[in-house]
Design brief:
Length: about 200
């Protein structure tokens, strides 16, 4: 495949994802029609099927793209952080604030049309959860190298799950949610770091 063909294919895929992302908040997964995605993108319905294979695959691709955008934002927060705790705080605030502003996620959390999108974030959201936790674990180790990989992975998954719970049940502001996450995580981080130093001293 030539570079021109690759660029054309990538542009087509992005155009289809843009069209689906624009339709999903109002229609949900069940109400989304491949023909409408095709019409909005200015292509044939068969082109959409050729690119994604099924409506479920298209919806999942939209969700993964949204997740990738959030992961980039989270990565930037960690890169600018002075410590692990400030990095976690910034990442949680960013995740919750921008998730509430994102049309697709807001629909999944708060509209009738979005009810069938919610599983992409919860029961069927394992690819998103995994990618978020893996990125966070890498950043945790960079900011606090005394953590073991296992501890970093456990802490990262816990933060992701706690952040998700605040999104699904938004009873606090983003800043308040971040502080509650830190209240749970700070003692655990101290314990993991202490144990890591202790093991090194005993070896």
């Amino acid at each position: 495949m030539t570079s021109f063909t690759e660029r054309t294919k990538a542009t087509l895929r992005e155009t289809l994802l843009d069209a689906a992302a624009d339709l999903l908040p109002d229609r949900g997964h069940q109400g989304l029609r491949m023909a409408d995605v095709a019409a909005k993108a200015g292509v044939s319905r068969q082109t959409v099927y050729n690119e994604f294979g099924s409506k479920a695959a298209l919806t999942q691709a939209v969700a993964l793209r949204v997740a990738a955008e959030f992961l980039d934002g989270i990565r930037c927060r960690f890169e600018d952080a002075e410590s692990l705790l400030t990095g976690i705080r910034g990442a949680v605030v960013y995740t919750i604030e921008h998730a509430r502003e994102n049309r697709l996620i807001a629909a999944a959390l708060g509209t009738e049309a979005g009810e069938d999108l919610l599983p992409l974030l919860t029961s069927r959201g394992e690819p998103i959860l995994t990618a978020s936790a893996e990125l966070a674990a890498q950043q945790y180790l960079a900011l606090e190298p005394r953590l073991s990989p296992e501890a970093a992975a456990l802490l990262a998954e816990t933060v992701v799950r706690l952040s998700l719970s605040h999104l699904v049940l938004p009873t606090h502001s983003a800043a308040e949610a971040a502080e509650s996450v830190l209240a749970v995580l700070a003692p655990a981080i101290d314990q993991f770091v202490h144990n890591g130093v202790k093991r090194e001293g005993q070896s």
